[in-house]
Structures are given as C-alpha cells and as structure tokens.
Amino acid sequence: QIPVPVLGISASQHPVKAGLSDAFMILNPSPDVPESRRRTIYEYHRVELDTSRITSMSAVEFTPLPTCLQHQSCESCVASELTFNCSWCHVLQRYL
C-alpha cells in the first residue's frame, strides 16, 4: 500500500524518481578533507516511469531490448533491425 499518492509528494522536499538507470561511480580524494573521498555518480542511461501511474497494488514490467550478444553469426546480426552498430571482436571471437 502506498500511504501518500506519489503526485502529492512535494518535489522540493523529497523528489520522487521511479524507473531504471545505468551509471558508474568514481571516488575522488576530497580537497577539503584529505582522508575522505568524494563520490561522483555519472548516469549514462535512464528509463523513467510516469509517476501518475504508480498506485497501490500496481506492478511494472521492463522488457529488455535485443542486443548483439543474442546473435550467433555475422549474417543474423546484420539481418537484425538493431538501432546500433555491432562490430566483430577478434579477441572474444564474437560480435559486440
């Protein structure tokens, strides 16, 4: 059960984000405190949900897009309708 409707939560007090994202993190030494590290998160892809559709007893299903790894040959990869460019990796002997 969701006790407060998501749209009723003030974005200035507590921003609500729902979805999936890919990111990586880098720890940098903090110039102010030598013993500490500053954490920097770089997000490179995000899938956001419409927060108005988040209700009690609801569920979300994410379906992954196809990738080059699903293809077993050059011909099947080239014949697919992927929206990015696959390339052959000689070290791994497969498409990436």
UniProtKB/TrEMBL annotation:
Q: Mind telling me which Pfam families this protein's record contains?
A: PSI
Q: What is its main location?
A: membrane
Membrane protein topology class: Single-pass type I membrane protein
Coiled-coil annotated spans: none
Which superkingdom is the protein from? Eukaryota
What keywords appear on the UniProt entry? Glycoprotein, Membrane, Signal, Transmembrane, Transmembrane helix
Where would you find this protein in the cell?
Membrane
- This protein's GO CC annotations: membrane
**Presence of keyword Transmembrane helix:** yes
Signal peptide start-end: none
Q: Which family does it belong to?
A: Belongs to the plexin family.
PANTHER family for this protein: PLEXIN DOMAIN-CONTAINING PROTEIN 1, TUMOR ENDOTHELIAL MARKER 7 RELATED
Would you tell me the protein name for this molecule? PLDX1 protein
